[in-house]
From TrEMBL:
Annotated membrane topology: Multi-pass membrane protein
Pfam families hit by this protein: Ion_trans_2, TrkA_N
UniProt-annotated location(s): Cell membrane
Domain of life of the organism encoding this protein: Bacteria
Domain RCK N-terminal as annotated: residue spans: 143-263
Segments crossing the lipid bilayer: 45-61, 100-126
Name this protein carries in UniProt: Potassium channel family protein
Keyword terms, alphabetized: Ion channel, Ion transport, Membrane, Transmembrane, Transmembrane helix, Transport
GO cellular component: plasma membrane
GO BP: any one term: monoatomic ion transmembrane transport
Taxonomic classification: Bacteria, Bacillati, Actinomycetota, Actinomycetes, Mycobacteriales
């Protein structure tokens, strides 16, 4: 069955093997802060003036090889008319050394000068070259990041929780085939990859093989199973958290390699049932699941002064103890005493929220 699913979605092309310049329309790395157009123009003019000054100094130091060049102002004048290709001819190199300097130094500067002062077309090419270098550098250095597959309602909520928990936006990569969804993700400072995550080459392009965690949140359960299979194949050590609509499909995701499975339909159903019986309980649950207000569920390392104590007697409201990757509820016998290296699952108070200290 797994092979049939892979064959159904696998493609012969390999996006991951494409050169960086071919990935500009696929990978988008948001800039930290867009520069002002006036700053960009001023910077180009500064570079142009530095080229004029460098050319003038080169000509002035060899002024004996030029006709009509006596003062430094003459050298600046010669540099300006030469780099701008005006070329009046009143100052010209006459010696072999001066002509060699013109060929090897001043002519390349003239080309660079024209590139700096050119219009929109070369500006776009320069921007694409910058993005190409940026993508190459990102692919080389991206490590221990989080990949979010699917930027629908669940994917957006997952990224919101990650950002609220202190994960930098540059460490989150969103994979989706919807351009509008990726535009929204990019506006939040997230790195985006355009493509279908059912393809292993798209997953490799997103750096799933080097990711710390992968969130699988597509709209269909069979797609979630296939993506989980592909992710586990290329990232054996990554933590995979997957979402599934129907509970009867959760075992397929676990068999495919998911470390944790969230059943969205049952979770929503329980919340609806609680709302009819005890609306206040639903409000508290929503508060715990909202990372930016009231309270939230968090995890932390046990303190040295807490080792050996009972988690029920700690200052924080502890829900469970995580030991060697296994969660023990606070009322279990394994969690009666806190041991070194344990992590506590507790209720954290969001400072500054209404109703909190």
């Amino acid at each position: 069955m797994n092979d049939r699913l892979r064959d159904r979605f696998r493609s012969d092309s390999d996006i991951e093997a494409l050169p960086p310049q071919s990935l500009i329309r696929i990978v988008n790395i948001p800039d930290s802060a867009p520069a002002s157009p006036w700053w960009l123009i001023s910077r180009r003019m500064l570079y142009a003036m530095l080229l004029v000054l460098a050319t003038a100094m080169a000509a002035y130091f060899d002024r004996g090889g030029y006709t009509g060049l006596e003062t430094f102002l003459d050298a600046v004048y010669y540099a300006a008319v030469s780099l701008s290709t005006t070329g009046y001819g009143d100052i010209a190199p006459v010696t072999q050394s001066a002509r060699l300097i013109n060929i090897l130094v001043i002519t390349p500067m003239r080309v660079i000068f024209l590139i700096l002062l050119v219009g929109t077309t070369l500006s776009v090419l320069t921007e694409e070259s910058r993005k190409t270098l940026q993508i190459r550098r990102w692919r080389r250095h991206m490590r221990n990041h989080t990949v979010v597959i699917g930027y629908g309602t669940k994917g957006r909520a997952a990224t919101t929780a990650l950002l609220a928990d202190g994960v930098p936006a540059s460490q989150i990569v969103v994979v989706d085939s919807d351009s509008e969804a990726l535009t929204h993700a990019s506006s939040r400072g997230l790195v985006t990859v355009h493509g279908h995550a059912t393809r292993s080459d798209v997953l490799k392009l997103a750096g799933a093989a080097r990711a710390r965690a992968v969130v699988v949140a597509p709209n269909q359960d069979d797609t979630a199973v296939l993506i989980t299979l592909s992710v586990r194949e290329i990232a054996p050590s990554a933590t995979i958290v997957a979402s599934v609509r129907e509970s009867e499909n959760s075992h397929l995701l676990r068999q495919s390699g998911a470390d944790s499975v969230v059943v969205s339909s049952e979770t929503a159903g329980r919340m609806l049932g609680l709302a009819t019986v005890s609306p206040s309980v639903t409000g508290m649950m929503e508060d715990l699941l909202s990372p930016d207000e009231g309270f939230s569920v968090a995890e932390r390392v046990v303190g040295e002064d807490e080792v050996g104590g009972n988690p029920r007697n700690l200052e924080d409201i502890v829900l469970g103890v995580v030991r060697s990757g296994v969660l023990y509820r606070v009322n279990s016998s394994e969690a009666e005493t806190v041991e070194p290296g344990d992590r506590l699952l507790y209720i954290r108070r969001i400072t500054g929220a209404p109703g909190t200290d």
